[in-house]
Amino acid sequence: MNEQQRARRPGGRSARVAAQVHQAVTDLIGERGYGNFAVGDVAARAGVADSSIYRRWGGLETLLTEVVLTRLNAQSPMPDTGSLDGDLRTYAAQVAREITGPDGPAVLHLAVALSSSGQQGRQAGADLRAERTRQLQSMLDRARERGEPAPDALDVLDHVLAPMYIRVLFGMVPLTPDYIDGLVDRLL
Amino acid sequence: MNEQQRARRPGGRSARVAAQVHQAVTDLIGERGYGNFAVGDVAARAGVADSSIYRRWGGLETLLTEVVLTRLNAQSPMPDTGSLDGDLRTYAAQVAREITGPDGPAVLHLAVALSSSGQQGRQAGADLRAERTRQLQSMLDRARERGEPAPDALDVLDHVLAPMYIRVLFGMVPLTPDYIDGLVDRLL
């Protein structure tokens, strides 16, 4: 690709820069923990100028918010196996894989940190949870339409997601398949 | 108290400085979030010299660790009401009051942040959880000795503490008495 072609595809370069910057943020959270780095660290790690980050994201908080939203919304689609039991087991195993994966704890810490940061972070956290709850609710609604008794979305949060989140946040890993299935069994 | 008397009671002054510094840390976590302040900010807020903090704690991480350990160990003693049902309800209500109190979310965020910080933080987090688990275990052991069936300590973590922790970390408050009792009912 020559310079002229590159100039015609600003979207391609822009998307690549965004991906590098997002990965730099995720790496820095994993290595140093949330809050222990600045825009300059992200820029250096991503190989871009500080000014590119300020121009595009305004500052660190907006960037962090975007990273969390992008990572969590990129999660696999909600399962549709034909039974609530199958859906919940698949969903719980999927979440467990995500939060114990290479970037999982970092993203989970960031999601928690967002809710304790400023107004914008809190709003981003609330939006993120609303979107996840909506997806979970459609899974539970499908079960009810098939005539299966289904718990509330908040019960799934309290008794399947919360235990897994807290165990990962506290470093009590791995989450074994038996443990995850046990959470679903107890809920159903 | 004159200067001579003060000089004779270094423990009194030392304890007062420690209390001021601890409170400054808790305030800063509440206002700015974990990681968004340095030793100098703590010193300024507590009205002491930076060097006093470095001399006594070495650095920010040790200080943060000590604050979390002190706050969480200062929690009310484990209840002993004569029945597991009563003990668990009292304990859950106590934890809910602590984590939704003025400094509760800050301390909870710090406990989570510790586990993602360096080796020393992870060890402090693990020690803290071991101590809390030991206390909880004695409550459950007392119930078994009375002939009551009792859940495992990890079930209490997963189904009573984790849902409350996650709701506070995500800003889904207040935790109502009905909600808290519902968690205990479901566990028993």
TrEMBL record, chains A, B:
One Gene Ontology MF term: transcription cis-regulatory region binding
Top-level taxon of the source organism: Bacteria
Protein name: Putative HTH-type transcriptional regulator
Organism: Streptomyces hundungensis
Domain HTH tetR-type positions: 15-75
Keywords assigned by UniProt, alphabetized: DNA-binding, Transcription, Transcription regulation
Alphabetized Gene3D superfamilies for the sequence: Homeodomain-like, Tetracycline Repressor, domain 2
DNA-binding region: 38-57
